[in-house]
Amino acid sequence: MAVRLSRPPRFDAWIALAGLAGGLLLWGFGLGVRPAEDPMVLFGGRWPLLVPLAVTACCELLRRTAPRTALLIGTAALAADTMTQGSIATIVMYTDLMYAAVVYGTPATARRLPKITGVLTVAATLVPYAGWRVPEALLIGLVVGAVTFAPASTGLIVRNHRDAADAARLRAEQTALLAEMDRTQAVNQERARMARELHDVVANHLSAIAIHSTAALSLDEPGTSREALTVIRENSVQGLSEMRRLIGILREGADDREPAATPTLDGLAALVEGARANGLDARLDTEPCSVPAPVELAAYRIVQESLTNALKHAAKGRVSVWLRRTDGTLDVRVTSPYGGRDAPRAPGSGAGLVGMRERAALLGGTFDAGPEKDPDGTGGKVWAVRASLPVTDTDSAPGDA
């Protein structure tokens, strides 16, 4: 059996020293468990009992670092102590070794020792009584139980409580970790939501400002420049208003005014009219329908971002916005002329398509964007944005409303 030779804890050293000192004190006063003339004393005199005492005290140094080894050696020392006058200090230290073997030993040792000592206690009670038929014989089982079974049972109770406390602490740490992960995920989701909102409500106005300011700088016509500056002012005022709304949402309680209402499908007409004012030949084809608020916001933002992209990238021609509710879904389709432009009228980051796809995914819908043949049969191509948003049982959907 391998013995770990690590340095014993200071508390164990104090236990060993206290046990040895107590045994020496009792030895000095000539106090022993049995008188010298007892027939069970095979090694008479006072000196032989010091050997089991010293060995048991040394075992106390191993009570935590090598509990099984300490118990085995201590058992041998206790057996030797029964052949001498005996020392109370040796017996007390042995009970501590039994307790430590259960508390600090392996799980198998902790399970077996109470059973083994329980069987020994029962045997030490019944066998002497069966042989001697006197009540005093029962005291042998009582002593054996007090020295072996009682400390082993106490150790098992303490170990079970300790293991339960460790398990509870581990569960608490895991719960805290999961809570932190949930908090981080919620923060990241909120950041993504605000990023989509900020991009969708501001990018449209800033794109119009960039395009019309470029036109105003490139044309030396007072009338055209004035029209461009008028559009720039309108978009800057609207963009500033949207920014204030978002800042008001972020600053809870910073302003007593209610933030602006969430955009709905009723605002699509004004949105398309604004796109026409920015220079797009935009047309809206929709029918009145009632859908949950998250779906309304997602559809509105998808149309808004599609018009912004058309303003920056589309060639000259008709931009069509089409919405229909069919079979439990709201279908959104925005097409714009594709090709014929070497560079965009305003720079883009590509975040718009990502945001539209995220909005559709949050509602359990689908999103697709890309070039396709012009349905008018002219042979040209259009850039089509297609989204299908479920509208059944979506009141609790994780939308952006």
Q: How would you describe this structure in keywords?
A:
5-stranded mixed beta sheet, alpha+beta, single chain, 2 domains, rod-shaped, disordered C terminus, Heat Shock Protein 90, 401 residues
In a few lines, what is going on in this structure?
With 401 residues, the protein is α+β, with helices and mostly antiparallel strands. It has 10 helices and 5 strands.
Q: What does this entry look like structurally?
A:
The protein has 401 residues and is an alpha+beta fold. It has two domains: 10-174, no CATH class; 263-401, Histidine kinase-like ATPase, C-terminal domain (Heat Shock Protein 90, 2-Layer Sandwich). It is 60% helix and 10% strand. A five-stranded mixed sheet has the order 1-2-3-5-4. Strand 1 (281-286), helix 9 (293-313) and strand 2 (318-326) form a beta-alpha-beta unit.
Average predicted confidence as pLDDT: 82
User: Low-confidence parts, pLDDT < 50 over ≥5 residues?
Assistant: 253-259, 394-401
What's the multimeric state? single chain
- Spell out the helices and strands N to C: HHHHHHHHEHEEHEE
Distance between the termini: 68 Å
Describe the global form: rod-shaped
Q: Compute the number of helices.
A: 10
The chain-level structural class is alpha+beta
Portion in helices: 55-70%
Report strand %.
5-15%
Q: Could you give a short account of the major beta sheet?
A: 5 strands, mixed
The Cα radius of gyration reads: 44 Å
Order of strands, main sheet, comes to: 1-2-3-5-4
- Overall number of strands: 5
Number of domains: 2
